Structure formats: structure tokens, C-alpha cells
Amino acid sequence: MHLFWPVLNSNHRRFNASPLHLQNQLKSILFNVKVVIDWRTSEKQATPSVSSEERRGEE
Fold it and tell me: What total number of domains does the chain contain?
């Protein structure tokens, strides 16, 4: 029974449209968006240090 549980679980997720499921889906989407935004902002913060290293290389 334990071996078949992931299959049943995935089918249950596929057809489940309850408010709780939609809420969890929305949370995961918002979390992914937050991760991308954090990555973008950290990338922007890292950019000046890269440009300063390039300036050192030019000198």
C-alpha cells in the first residue's frame, strides 16, 4: 500500500480543486515569485562589485 501511495497522492492532487489546495498552490507561486525577486535584487547588488573588479583589471 505504501508503494502505491505516491501514485494515489498525485492523482488526488491533480483532481483536487478545494480552497485549501488552491491556497497552497497560490502560496507556492508567491514563494517562487519571491525567490526570483530576491535573486534579481541580490544580482543587482552584486553588479557594482563586478564593475569595480573590471575597473581594477583595466588599470
Answer: 1
C-alpha distances (whole Å) from 16 to each of 19, 23, 29, 34, 40 are 9, 12, 17, 25, 33
- Each residue's pLDDT, cut to its tens digit, for the chain (59 residues) gives 455 555 555 555 555 567 788 888 889 999 999 999 998 998 888 766 555 555 666 55
Cβ pair 21, 13 in contact under 8 A? yes
Q: Is residue 34 part of a domain?
A: yes
Global pTM value: 0.41
